[in-house]
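Hi support team,

I submitted a single chain yesterday and got back a structure, but I'm not sure I'm reading the token output correctly. Could someone confirm the output below corresponds to the sequence I sent? I've pasted both exactly as they appear in my results page.

Thanks,
R.
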Amino acid sequence: MEKKIVNELKLEDEKDTLDDSIGFLTELIETSDNLTNVGKVELTKVVRVLYNIYYDDTDAFWKSK
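Hi R., thanks for writing in. Yes, this is the structure output for that exact sequence:
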């Protein structure tokens, strides 16, 4: 039982980190003057992948870990 709680806490930390990363990258894309259009497009692709993992597949993805 104790191991299950520890594992759930670790997964929550991972989800929080992923959510923070999505937010950071989104803000970076929107506000950075140093990124080229190609850089913004590539980072947007990364954000979409992270978003899909986190929001679309959250239950299935995190339960499988």
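A quick pointer for reading it: The chain has a mean pLDDT of 76. Let us know if anything else looks off.

Best,
Support desk
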